[in-house]
Amino acid sequence: MDDKKNTLSEETKGISPEEVIEVVGFDDIKSALSKLDAKQEQLEKEKKEEAAKQSDEQKKETASVKVDDEKKDEKSVDASLDTSKGNSDKKTDLDEKKESDEKKLSDEKKELDEKKTSDEKKELDEKKTSDEKKESDEKKTSDEKKESDEKKSSDDKKSSDEKDATPTNKDSGKALTQSKRLADAKAASAAKAEAESAVTTTPKKEKKKGKGIAVFFGVLVVLVLAAYVGGVVYFSNYFYPDVAINGVDVSNMDQAAAKKTLDDFNKNYTLTLDTIDGKQVVIQGADIAMEIKLKDEFGKCLKEQEPYMWFVNLGNHHDYVIAADATWDAEKLESLYADMKMLDKKYMTAPKDAYIGMEDGKFTIVKEELGTTLDVDTFKKVVDNCLASVVASANLKDLECYELPSIYDTDDSLANDLAAMGDYANGVITLQLDDLTLEPGMELYDAVLEKDGDGYTVSKTKVAKYVKSLADQYDTMGKERTFTTSFDDRVIKISGTAFGYEMDQEATTTALYNALNEKKAATVEVVFKTKGRTLQGENDIGDTYIEVNLSEQYVVGYKDGKKVVEGDCVSGCEANGNGTCLGLYVIQDKLSPTVLRGQQVEVTETVTKKNKKGKKVKVKKTKMEYEYESPVTYWLQFNGGYGLHDAAGWRSSYGGSIYYYNGSHGCVNLPLDVAEKLYEVFQLDDPVLVYFWDNENRK
């Protein structure tokens, strides 16, 4: 084959393409085309291997360029073939067989080219799809460019070999190699342009951005500085938005406006005093003949507000005082004081310290009470100072005019005590005194608990002391009561040792002490030796009793608050010292009928008696006899041998002044019907009250 090539080469030197075709013949052309096809397949294989090595960025940028260039090269090959065909037509001595062979060769070539174009297009489409998914990489672009140069050198060498092997296909081989070189060159150029763009564009943007930030901060600094200077200048001449001089608002005013405002205020000067209970007391300057002349110290106040620190001081309240020469009538001021109820002790309430108490059955710290007790001397001094300073208002509490609590609810000692008493928090004690229920709350715990280290314990001694305090308050035996009578609701004082409450203190102390140590809620029954009727009313007598009015010689009986019987009576004889005893008693006994007898006394009488000799002699004999014996139908005993009873057997009239000279031995004599009713209604232990209006001058 090589020999044939050399022969052909020698034979075709200086011959035109048309002549070469004529000399070589159809068979030689066919052979050359076959070699060309083999070479093209080898090139396509190499191109696929090369494409696999190329980066994603090279594929993306070179695909479209390669397609266009390769199409141009293909057109160049076709054009060369067409030229050969044209030259062949010009040869008049070629026979129809040669034309037929050339036509056949052309058709085969066209079919080969269409197949090649289809395969290349398919390969390019696949490359383009893969390339679109990836981004540019400068480093890979540089490496790919190097490979492209090496490949270009290899392609040039191959192109030279093809030229030597197949002279008839010289233009076709050259077109394929040239297409590859053009594609690589364009890809390298595009990669270089992009790299340069990335290098040159980014710094420009950053430079431009950095310059903009510098300009912004520069402008900002200028604006802030201008605002600060403007503020200093403004507030060197004007007061801040929240400024008062002598208690008068001068916000945002200059010196002239502030002076005019204060001068106008002083013409109608008023001093307002805020009290501790939220009230106000007003002293009018006109009422005390007050005259005011301010000193010129407004500029001093402007300096004191520190205008160079306006950005810090602007939101704060500022109070300034300008001295003034003020005078007033002291006597008129004292006259105003005389009319102020707040200075009268009758209207003052004392302060109360905070303490640990009980609310809703739980221990808690009870807040202090401020009270309204003024120190009058301090109050007057404060008023004088306010008037002299020409201030518009003053808070008396802030100026320490009041007596205040010594312990507040924020006191740590209270919090500590509250925590220490926690063990007794659930031990709420209720005291039951007959029909009276007491819930002493913290009063009880304050009285009976004593400090024991960090905690508290119940002191039995203190419990006994607390029980005694209850007895002192609620025992009535032997104590004077207030009683409202049936006679025009006249009120008397009455007492007695036969009726009332008397507490068993020892038994009650034990019961209460035990309950406290249980640390549980409990009701303790207070033990009484004797009881009255109630502990809830005006007194312990209740609403069922017999009322004996010796001044009026009249008896009234009440049952459950309702009058059931009344009538005249005759009491003990005052003239001979048998007056009925006074006081509060109870019905001790009831009899019907019975004989009332007086005390037994010795009675001496002279009797005739025979002696031993049979002679009659007179002798004295002593015996015990009752002073009197009086049969009665109804008897109600209330004080030993004294009581209420009927006297129908020996009296026909009652009431009036009979009792004084012709009274009883001390009992209360009643008509039969009154005695009967009393006997039916009243029972043992029901109270009996016996009284005079004026016991010292009873008649």
Kindly describe this structure.
- With 699 residues, the chain is α+β, with helices and mostly antiparallel strands.
- It has four domains: 2-202, no CATH class; 243-395, no CATH class; 426-482 and 495-530, Ubiquitin-like (UB roll); 545-697, L,D-transpeptidase catalytic domain-like (Beta Barrel), CATH 2.40.440.
- 45% of the residues lie in helices and 21% in strands.
- It is built from 18 helices and 32 strands.
- The strands form twelve sheets. A five-stranded mixed sheet has the order 22-21-20-32-23, with helices on one face. A four-stranded mixed sheet has the order 24-29-30-31, covered by helices on one side. A three-stranded mixed sheet has the order 2-1-6, with helices on one face.
- Residues 1-30, 61-95, 127-142, 150-177 and 198-203 have low confidence and may be disordered.
Notable characteristics:
about 700 residues, alpha+beta, Ubiquitin-like (UB roll), 4 domains, five-stranded mixed sheet, four-stranded mixed sheet
Kindly summarize this structure in a few lines.
The protein is an alpha+beta fold and 699 residues long. The chain contains 18 helices and 32 strands.
Show unreliable segments: 1-30, 61-95, 127-142, 150-177, 198-203
Radius of gyration: 68 Å
Strand content range: 15-25%
So what's the overall shape? elongated
Write the layout of secondary structure elements.
Layout: H1 2-11, H2 17-24, H3 26-53, H4 56-90, H5 96-131, H6 138-165, H7 170-235, E1 243-245, E2 248-249, H8 255-267, E3 270-274, E4 280-284, E5 291-294, H9 298-304, H10 310-313, E6 318-320, E7 324-327, H11 330-338, E8 355-359, E9 362-366, H12 376-389, E10 393-395, H13 412-420, E11 429-433, E12 436-438, H14 442-448, E13 449-452, E14 455-458, H15 460-474, E15 481-484, E16 491-494, E17 502-503, H16 505-518, E18 522-525, E19 528-530, E20 545-549, E21 554-559, E22 562-568, E23 583-586, E24 589-591, E25 594-597, E26 600-610, E27 616-626, E28 629-632, E29 635-639, E30 642-646, H17 658-662, E31 668-670, H18 672-681, E32 687-691
Parallel strand pairs: 1-6, 3-10, 11-18, 20-32, 30-31
Antiparallel strand pairs: 1-2, 3-4, 5-7, 8-9, 11-12, 13-14, 15-16, 17-19, 20-21, 21-22, 23-32, 24-29, 25-28, 26-27, 29-30
